[in-house]
């Protein structure tokens, strides 16, 4: 393997975006969860919702800050590593990022301070409104990022003038059908991430015999929400597959591990792809199922990778395996959410300890599913930066040297790993401390903003073990 500036730039962007996506995929769902908790507290007056709100607000504040810091680097990388992409697609991508600032960042900047410092300074309804606006801001941010990325996956509404992509139809760009199957898919992924993290935290407290009331609420709300959302997510995933099948056939063939045209097509369940020999080793394949999944027919002809020139094919191994890991995580989450919801609804006691452990250990699953989903989408898009119209090799900064990218990649890796290590340790301490009584929560001091995440005394609530 030759370590070129192009390859190192791709690795650098993959590393930084993989680190960054952890935080928005968590905070988008967590912001919605906070809005639900505050609404339930106002409607029911039950203190448990207030305790949970104050507890998860600390987690949200820390992860939101880490997400903002890690995301800033990506904007600089567009200019430093991908200046040709910025120059060519700037008339389209620049306004989309500006729209994110005008909507998402504006809402978050206006109402995040109220959310952190305004509990005792504004009316309860205004505080709830501020919480909802922060949640809406995180949703807008996801929307504009997905519009931007979806345009790179399926460019529409543009004309090319002197090598520059000029927008000709903003309606087509923003309301592309690709956006409206990919954005909900990403949004629900974030909600599932929040749901499983909340449920896993509740299971952890139940296993340790602490915070019985809060643990029960977290388990029920997290697993019930996941049980409802996962079937919707699987359907949206199917719609995304239809888009890839129709608009990115080479990516679809790589995901399927299909090297030659087939009619009818089988479905490769697992194999070891061999790009050099254009074949699969140790292949497990189900006849006819590939045609059914791709075209909802048993006799459709499906295209193989050898139908495309080698220079237009994506790498096969990463999208092939990443897609299967993503689907596997989704199926595991569905089984766990449905089984856990069944136990909760019918108050089953047998095997509940094992299910609590499974729920606790499930918290990495939505993050892994999000990572592998992005790996499938982005690696499968290669060798294109804007699919079919701008190659990745033509998007990199032409004056960039291998030495410069190597140094910056090492620096980013060290800094990000240090931030992640300290951030993870701090979050663990917050989670270990657990919820506190609402009346013991000290008002946040704008002069000491970190006080919101650790300055309050710890008061344990009702103790107890078991599922309920």
- Form type: globular
Bin the helical content: 55-70%
Structural class: mainly alpha
Order of helices and strands: HHHHEEHHHHEEHHHHEEHH
Brief synopsis:
This protein is mostly helical and 468 residues long. The protein has 14 helices and 6 strands.
Task: Describe it.
This protein is mainly α and 468 residues long. 68% of the residues lie in helices and 6% in strands. The protein has helices at 5-44, 47-80, 83-117, 124-153, 170-174, 179-207, 212-247, 249-256, 289-295, 317-346, 352-361, 364-381, 392-395, 402-433, and strands spanning 158-161, 164-167, 267-274, 279-286, 384-386, 390-391. The strands form 3 sheets. It has a two-stranded antiparallel ribbon. A two-stranded antiparallel ribbon has the order 3-4. The protein has a two-stranded antiparallel ribbon with strand order 5-6. β1 (158-161) and β2 (164-167) form a beta hairpin. α1 crosses α6 (179-207) and α8 (249-256) crosses α10 (317-346). The longest helix is centred in the first third of the chain and has 40 residues, at 5-44. The chain is globular and about 65 Å long.
How do the helices and strands line up, and which of them pair or pack?
Elements: H1 5-44, H2 47-80, H3 83-117, H4 124-153, E1 158-161, E2 164-167, H5 170-174, H6 179-207, H7 212-247, H8 249-256, E3 267-274, E4 279-286, H9 289-295, H10 317-346, H11 352-361, H12 364-381, E5 384-386, E6 390-391, H13 392-395, H14 402-433
Antiparallel strand pairs: 1-2, 3-4, 5-6
